[in-house]
Amino acid sequence: MNERKKKMLYNSINRGCKEVELLLSEFALTELSHMSNDDLNEYETLLQMNDCDLYNKFIDIFNNLDKAHGVLKKIIAFNTELR
Predict the structure, then answer these.
(1) Which Pfam families does the annotation name (predicted)?
(2) Which residues touch 32 (CB under 8 Å, ≥6 apart)?
(3) pLDDT per residue as tens digits for the range 35-58
(4) Euclidean distance between CA atoms 3 and 43, whole angstroms
């Protein structure tokens, strides 16, 4: 795993909010190794969000799955076993 992916993995596992850690950690452990560059860029952008905003984004999407797209859709599918 290259340095960028290692940093992303670390930032996925070590969040300030346990709920966000739970959503991201297993996803990152499983999916980072074979994500496309576009998906990595999108995921990296998500990781830069503060935990409260990111958590609220997940809640909003869970309440309206039609809004899910890209990496967010993959994270939701991973965590709800819709893969």
Answers:
(1) Sdh5
(2) 1, 5, 8, 9, 12, 40, 43
(3) 999 999 999 999 999 999 999 999
(4) 15
